[in-house]
Design a protein that fits this description.
Blueprint lengths: L18 E4 L9 E4 L2 H8 L3 H7 L2 H18 L7 H26 L1
Antiparallel strand pairs: 1-2
């Protein structure tokens, strides 16, 4: 497998200046990205999922909305459902699938 070059898509916030590639022990795996120094490590350690979600940057909000629309479309549901309606429908589906599974298990035994 050819070695991959440093990609900003693999680096938080597209910050290739904060990391360097370290070859992985297993040749088939891509190289590891490690902080270049202690200052870079502090910056990278401050970038957490919790912080990202609390700040909710516009690009993340947009991706969540796109994902929500795709999931609703996959279920064949309209986009204007409230969160309570979605949860109710998901619970109903869960009950239906649990009942179907119980019927299958009863038949097998």
């Amino acid at each position: 497998m050819p070695r991959r070059k440093l990609s900003t898509k693999r680096v938080p916030d597209g910050s290739p200046e904060l990391v360097h590639e370290e070859p992985e022990v297993v040749p088939e795996l891509p190289p590891r990205l490690l902080p270049k120094d202690e200052a870079a490590a502090r910056i990278l350690n401050s970038r957490t999922i919790t912080k990202l979600y609390n700040e909710r940057p516009p690009w993340l909000d947009l991706r969540h909305k796109e994902l929500d629309r795709a999931v609703l479309a996959a279920y064949g549901w309209p986009e204007d459902l409230s969160e309570a309606e979605i949860l109710s429908r998901l619970l109903q589906l869960n009950h239906q699938r649990a009942a179907a599974r119980a019927r299958r298990e009863t038949i097998v035994q």
